[in-house]
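Progress note, sequence design subtask.
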């Protein structure tokens, strides 16, 4: 698992979480900046998934592949699901949903690193 890509995913998701939280506290609707940010986050998550799949195909990785791929699959689904739910909710809770999605991506990526390193 590429730690540079994981660091980018964690940093980007925490930044988007903070921006979403500020937007929710200000009682503003979600804007294009958040949408583009979560689209870029999804691209970074897909790149990370590609690195993990390539490494596992090459014989690397932990013994527990089911947990690894469970976290990876869940992580790929969170940004689009969060954006979909946030678009459906046009109040302050739309950006609140994105704040939770950003935090979940950061935690799941950290957990993926633990699983990959065998410290989980």
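Output:
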């Amino acid at each position: 698992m590429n730690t540079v890509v994981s660091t980018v995913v964690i940093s980007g998701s925490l930044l988007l979480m903070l921006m979403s939280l500020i937007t929710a506290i200000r009682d503003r609707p979600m804007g294009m900046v958040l949408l583009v940010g979560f689209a870029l986050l999804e691209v970074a998550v897909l790149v990370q998934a590609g690195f993990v799949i390539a490494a596992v195909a090459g014989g690397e990785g932990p013994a527990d592949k089911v947990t690894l791929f469970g976290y990876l699959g869940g992580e790929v689904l969170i940004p689009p699901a969060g954006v979909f739910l946030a678009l459906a909710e046009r109040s302050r809770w739309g950006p609140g949903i994105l704040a939770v999605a950003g935090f979940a991506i950061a935690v799941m990526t950290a957990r993926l690193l633990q699983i990959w390193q065998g410290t989980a």
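The mean pLDDT is 92. Work on this subtask will continue into the next period as scheduled.
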